[in-house]
Design goal:
The complex is a heterodimer of chains A (129) and B (170). Chain A has 2 helices and no strands. With 129 residues, chain A is mainly alpha-helical. Chain A has a domain of 45 residues. Chain A is elongated and about 110 Å long. The termini of chain A are far apart. Chain B has 170 residues and is mostly helical. In chain B, helix 2 packs across helix 3 and helix 3 crosses helix 4. The longest helix of chain B is centred in the middle third of the chain and has 20 residues. Classes of the chains: A mainly alpha (129), B mainly alpha (170). Chains A and B meet through helix 1 of A and helix 1, helix 2, helix 3, helix 4 and helix 5 of B.
């Protein structure tokens, strides 16, 4: 063969050369190997990245826990009283309870009206049937 | 591009590419090496060459360039005219660097040795799982082993091979 002559084959392949048997299978096996290696290596890289995430998560969880313990320690003291004088405190409590009671009366009144209306409508329905 | 799609497009052209390589390089061994280089490059570029209209023409140009590179490095005494003719074919766009091809070939060699060194059952399960991409259920049906056994064998084999390939990890 004259190596000084460049063969411009374009897409027309030389016909006078016979490829060896099993060439396609050899290439197919090589592609399988490359694919397997890629998957193995990308799996290992992913696992290494994941371990860093677990480490950071652990550190973050520890910081949150410590902060929580600190806050609990600071806030665990007895809350301060809002009133110094017990008589005044009692009077204020009574006032609040009375206003709650008034609101409940109004609510109960409305519930009674609603009940009357429902009974009336049930009576109408019963008459029809 | 998935593996099977790549094989369906490029493997049927391998005989033609081999003939081109052999007609330029002159020996079967050199032509096989050049063909191996070609398919490693094509595999590494598979995500970008999906839209190539004529894989035959594209691959033929690549294999010619690979062969010319080999002839140049082999220093077979080409005359100046021939070198000008060689340069007419120009460089392919965005081909992987030669050192990357060398690393890839070395990795394949290491992988082959690592798989060959596995115990028989591990090797069988490994090839089915990672080369032929069979599912665990399918492997259980083929081998007659239990599901747990197959998973354990696959895991051990994978760790052994990963350990051999760890030099290529970073």
């Amino acid at each position: 063969m004259d190596r000084n002559k460049i063969v411009d084959t374009k897409t027309v392949f030389p016909e006078n050369i016979n490829p060896p048997a099993g060439l396609g299978q050899e290439l197919s096996d090589m592609i399988d190997s490359m694919d397997a290696a890629e998957k193995l290596l990308s799996g290992s890289r992913h696992a290494a990245g994941k371990s860093w995430k677990y480490y950071l998560s652990g550190v973050a969880a520890g910081v949150v826990l410590l902060a929580g313990i600190w806050v609990a320690a600071v806030m665990s003291g007895t809350p301060e009283d809002t009133f110094k004088d017990p008589v005044t405190a009692y009077a204020e409590t009574e006032k609040i309870l009375e206003s709650i009671s008034d609101m409940m009366k109004k609510g109960l009144g409305k519930a009674a009206d609603a009940e009357k209306s429902i009974d009336k409508n049930i009576g109408i329905v019963k008459k029809l049937y | 591009m998935e593996k099977q799609e790549f094989k369906d497009i490029w493997l049927p052209l391998s005989d033609g590419f081999y003939r081109v390589a052999c007609s330029i390089l002159g020996t079967e061994q050199d032509a096989r090496d050049a063909l191996q280089d070609l398919y490693i490059r094509l595999w590494n570029m598979r995500d970008t060459i999906g839209k190539v209209r004529s894989p035959a023409a594209y691959g033929a140009r690549m294999i010619r360039n690979i062969c010319m590179d080999r002839l140049r490095t082999r220093n077979t005494g080409l005359n100046a005219e021939s070198i000008d003719e060689i340069s007419q074919f120009g460089n392919m766009e965005q081909e992987p660097a030669s050192d990357k091809i060398m690393i890839e070939k070395e990795m394949l060699c290491v992988l082959k040795k690592a798989v060959a060194a596995l115990p028989v059952l591990q090797k069988t399960v490994f090839e089915m799982k990672f080369f032929r991409q069979m599912g665990y259920d399918e492997i259980v049906r083929h081998t007659g082993l239990s599901y747990v056994n197959v998973r354990v064998l696959a895991s051990r084999a994978r760790k052994a091979v990963e350990s051999a390939l760890k030099g290529f990890l970073y």
